[in-house]
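Hi, can you check this record?
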Amino acid sequence: MVTRGDQLELDIDSAAFEGTTVARTDGLVVFGPYGVPGDRVRATITRKRRKYVEASIDEVISASPHRIEPECLHFGICGGCTLQNVDYEHQLEIKRELVKDLLARIGGIQ
């Protein structure tokens, strides 16, 4: 069982909205900002909820092949360019999957 302040090594599985990424540990979903699917990271649990936890990414242990250096000097600060650390082709794939998920989950459209 994880608690606030715990430090974990996680494999980023997928992307969610607004620059958040998803990892899993011990059957628990972990949301963290500005990771890239395929990254292995060291993260600290910042918030614990009943069904998920939130974490800050402290270090990228092993970078995803899709990770790039963001062009924007304000990346990670202002929140306006949440996927700039992902190569463009993979950004398109992430956005396509997010839209498909919303249409299926919320709209009931397959």
